[in-house]
Amino acid sequence: MTAETTPESNRRWRETKSALVSAACWVCALIVMTPLALVLFHLLRLGASSLDWTFFTQLPKPVGETGGGMANAIVGSFVLVGLAAAIGVPIGVLGGIYLAEYGSGRVNFMVRFAADILNGTPSIVWGIVVYALVVIPMKGASAYAGGLALGFMMIPLIIRTTEEMLTLVPQSHREAALALGIPRWKFIVHIALKTARKGILTGVLLAAARVAGETAPLLFTTPGNHFWSRSLSEPIASLPVQIYVNAIGPYDEWHRQAWAGALVLLFMALAVNVGARLITGRNNPPAIH
Amino acid sequence: MNAAAETDIRSAKVSFAPPNRAADAAFRFLTWLMAMMVVALVGLVGWKLFQGSRLSIQKFGLGFFVHSNWDPVNGDFGAAPFIFGTFVSSLLGLLMAMPLSLGTAIFLTELSPSWLRQPAITLIEMLAAVPSVILGLWGIFVMVPWLRDHPYHWLNSALGFLPLFQGPVYGVGILSAAVIIAIMIIPIITSISREVFRTVPQSQREAAFALGATRWEVTRLAVLRHSVRGIFGAGMLGLGRALGETMAVTMVIGNRPEISKSLFAPGYTLASAIANEFAEAASDLHSSALFELGLALLLVTIATNILAHLLIGAVGAPTRGQ
Amino acid sequence: MLTLAGPGWVEAQLLINGAGATFPYPIYSKWFDEYSKVDPSVHFNYQSIGSGGGQREILEGTVDFGASDGPMSDQNLARAPGRILHIPTLAGADAVTYNLEGNPVLHFDGPLIADIFMGKITRWNDARIAVLNPGVPLPAEDIVVVHRSDGSGTTYILADYLSNVSPEWAKQVGRGTSIKWRTGLGAKGNEGATGQIKQIPGAIGYVELIYAIQNNLPCASVKNASGNFVAPSMASINAALTGAAVPDDFRFSIVNARDSQAYPIAGATWLLVYAKQADSAKGRKLVEFLRWAMSQGEQIAPTLNYVPLPRELVQRVGREIDEIRY
Fold it and tell me: Was domain B61-312 assigned CATH 1.10.3720.10?
């Protein structure tokens, strides 16, 4: 015994230590929530005033002039996400069905491993891959190329949530369908998917929100368009790229519109995320990491 | 079976015709095909990157990764400054994020009153939903000027004798990139850590309480001690995310391909270099070198993620519902 | 598919894509906007990604025309699948601009600029700056060099000039759209460079004149070949342009010009176009635009402080445009 510690003083020291650590953890939580609060605050302060009719309906003005808007970028983002979903949803959902309903140990491991690799692929890498794959042969940037890059990014997200949601369908359902002589594929399409549809839809929405905010894959595949795109084989404007270009430029006018665009984009992303929680009604919506 | 499930089966459009083997086989094949496309996509990504890098690999070989000159005019390329920048900013970001994430995860699982828990979780996960470019925008105009005029200025004057804090303070630079990376990876580390903590059975905590442990001791003995691997895994997952971060980092790192001792110096990451230079790589060799950077980035990210999954054990199948 | 017709939204039949230099981006974007009113059936979509990008994309055929303020090298021209024409459109200036309290107009000479951008002079109150600027209060602050991180014709013009006036620069750095910088921050495009300079106190960089003007940044007066300190302006750029020897392929340089009133860091900018156009409809529209640019376009140029080409040169360019086949 080195010091004269009584059980009581020892207890007090331990309690103090515990209280300090708890306080530190509270502080950590507060610190962690601050950046989001700050970002929201600044976006609202600097961007809300620019959200007028002009912003939502007009095309960008020539360099150095004031006015104009991001109408084509907003519509372009929706178009790109639509294209992405056209690729991501079929492959993701059907692939997820395979994993949950038909697949076996080794094959499933390989597919899941591949999906994890795709999930971890940096977004800029998708950009240069799709550039080499589509932009060069097609001799030009296009909405197709941008949509493809985003679609590739959606696949691993959707396949994972689909598999997760389908495995939650009770085994008893499958057994009952078997007993009734219902063909496997009919069971999957009419029963399992129906049961899991809320979760799968949520997964799709979350994936869509995630890729809607991506900039890097679009930099080389559809760097922008100052006008409305009349066809999908032309480059198309998008909100994240427009925000980026405006942010790194010098004109205050551009910055003003960047804040407004960021507010719109963030609002949409948060709305989908909150909506996802409401749809599933669970505390843990499908994890999109 | 619950009522909802019974209704589903009854309302399902089924016929009592003999099972159509062909339709079943076709559907199964279709889903199998889609699953295989995922695997094929990995191959495609790898192949395109190799194809693009071939020229550079042939010319520079393995020395590419330790060579620190990036000279488009003379066709001399080396990835060392980008590898340095990527790792330093990511690791520094991880260093800043880990304690904050752990503290927050402990708060959420052990300390938070139940009415606060869900709103707090929602708030923190909303941060993960913020697109990178928006954080970059906020970074350029709000975070960096504030950092430059306050903490950096203080660090530079008070601790400027250390090589870490020497040199001109631009605001943009490695340290700012690290801070933004930290902000971006905190949600994922917190979320995974939370899940890891939740797998510890409540009985463990109760046993520790019963033995007279304080709150902190309960957490330390019952929860943390068994979660070390998972925490490491969470950190690795965060690192994997950090390595591939492009937009926010490009906007605040200063874009200088150089290795420097000071945290205030501008730097360059693999992702930023590609983002800035790819659209206009003047020569085939330049463009090939950038592809090789992309390949390096992909391989490093994959390795980190594999390590993370081994630590967390999350490659397994989700458990079947009952 | 996306036929979004509405009040004021005209549906064009044709979209022509171009990319390249950020140096002329303000005037090009104005030109394309004006031209869409002249001929509503075609839209020109120009992405300002830097001269390096313009050269690359026209070589790969991913755009219908490129734009660059650094002329394409013989090597690159040889690699092209067809003959590429350099069509000069305007002249502008690399303004040496900086972020200092009070926006003073500083005097620099060539070797001084070279040493600043090579990182040899690191403080604003350095003796060599002070000696050229007596009476101007220079702060004891670090000089933050801002250069281009992308392939840039603006960089080319500066590097061309510095190679002419500083033997050390010529030896150690040289000319090019992407050069190896010893010091400073990289920024994307003239837009990004101007943005950085505006954001960072003590920064110095080189941007096309109109960017500095539109963002209220001061421009240095630079010592020209005749020994006069000249500020960048339409008059001084014009002085650099007169008497320039323009070869048949139209790749010419006007840095460090002879004229006593010439601004030494001036340069021309080109549109890069294939002599044989692949798409006939696009080729026709492109040629129509080029003719408009050489007449009406040139008249609008001075509103943004760009200098139109001298009349004889415009006539020669007209004959060059005649060579385009579609």
Answer: yes
